[in-house]
Amino acid sequence: MGMRCKRCGEPPVIEIRRHRAAFCAGCFVHHCHEQVRRTVDKLRMFGPDERVLVAVSGGKDSLMVWDVLLDLGYHAEGVYLGLGIGEYSDESGAYARDFAEKRGAALHEVPVSDTVGAGIPVAAKAMKRPPCSVCGLSKRHLLNRAALERGFGVLATGHNLDDEAAVLFGNVLTWKMDYLARQRPVLPATDGFARRVKPLVRLGERETAAYCIVRGIDYQVEECPMAAGNRHLRYKEALNSIEEHSPGTKAHFYLQFLEQLLPRLDDVAEDDKADLRECVRCGSPTTGELCAFCRLSDRVSASTDPAA
Amino acid sequence: MGMRCKRCGEPPVIEIRRHRAAFCAGCFVHHCHEQVRRTVDKLRMFGPDERVLVAVSGGKDSLMVWDVLLDLGYHAEGVYLGLGIGEYSDESGAYARDFAEKRGAALHEVPVSDTVGAGIPVAAKAMKRPPCSVCGLSKRHLLNRAALERGFGVLATGHNLDDEAAVLFGNVLTWKMDYLARQRPVLPATDGFARRVKPLVRLGERETAAYCIVRGIDYQVEECPMAAGNRHLRYKEALNSIEEHSPGTKAHFYLQFLEQLLPRLDDVAEDDKADLRECVRCGSPTTGELCAFCRLSDRVSASTDPAA
What residues 166-205 of chain A have any CB closer than 8 A to a CB of chain B? Predict the structure, then answer.
């Protein structure tokens, strides 16, 4: 006697310890669909008639969220940012295009260099800032712009439970209240921002990898070479060492944060919005004249201009 | 050329990475005294004329806090609870008595079995509860009672920065708001409770060990055998793995919690106090008829009574 699929009783292919359950391949896909469907409905991420733009990196999480939303019958198109990180970017783009083609779904491609003037490695050097910081700023801006320009009210990302728990751990270690207040699975649309949603927050990265394998989705396995050894990965490791002994700790940590702490931080989120006005160049919300992204573009262009 | 004592320039014996500083033996003792003095004053733990009862286990932290308070000129007596944990308790008592004798300070001894009817291992078995839980309940009650009965308004414990950071990590992982609201370095006196203070919250356990070694204080090195492998130790390890890469993370985590989050939890702490009344037997604050400690004593006595 071994474990049995929780739903149909057949031999299982994956065990999920925090749920004390195991699933066969077919029922695991059903389980994932249900988790996403319930998350989208319960947190009112979007309705059946809304057009959703999915931020696609070519990795397991973003391809899974796109796949599930299509399966659930949503109108979901993809947007892929060309980050210019050498072979890594070449490969990630190929995975994204391959998936779009197989599913017959539209993929919008946006090279970062078109607006920033260079890819992430060159831009980070020009700015003398860590690449993950420049990359995050560029993604936030360009994904949002891609959604608004193409008439999407909703931007979906593939952040999973492990990502969110690690980010939460980092935010808790420093108690940056404004960061904590903004760490929500749904960030409502405001002037200049499309609604941002994270439909995979109830699924761990072991599950998103298993989903892609079971569904035959080819994805980029390697991590971004620029992120190696960063804090985010150490936070994941620290949480994993605890999860190993107490399955469910990570999910409880993140989901109870949403229930218990976030409601106490509404005033922080409000304070944050108070001072925003429009960037004089691109119209994005900003606290200064030019938004951080336009300042980035200016400085990168100036430093890489051959005439300078 | 190596590092130099931050204060006098002599060759150092200890480096404290989060302070980017090193100290010779004498200046390290001075540094520890200053840290405690500032903590006591800044957080208004007690004034120069208050009598302080120090909870002494025989370990490095409690002997250090007693030693420092005596050096700083406070009237500090010790209280030692006999937990009845075999050889471990025999040894810990010897260290406490030895220190009291060398410093010519008064030590009050309270065997847990006098009121509970048995030591911690037997009581935990009788209650079918984890020993750390029964021990914590007994300590809270008996230390408080020892302070009140002997006319001390203040009870000091040796909780250090590593202890507090690990407890905070555990409380954050579950987001138990009432536990978080109560995790303060000073818990004010209320009806039935002496003020409880933690003067070592700015010192890590590497520093409390070094202090005892430099000062020639013999302390019990081994951990309690009943606590081996508990969650608290895993939380410490997880935080240490992060501290290793980013010195100062632990201190920032705990100290910013006090600054940023605790002020937002005042209403939780208030709600908690609302329902308290006096235990009908011992007068301790409780939400029921009998306090949890008196219920513990009753059940342990019933199960160990040879006449039963």
Answer: 172-175, 177
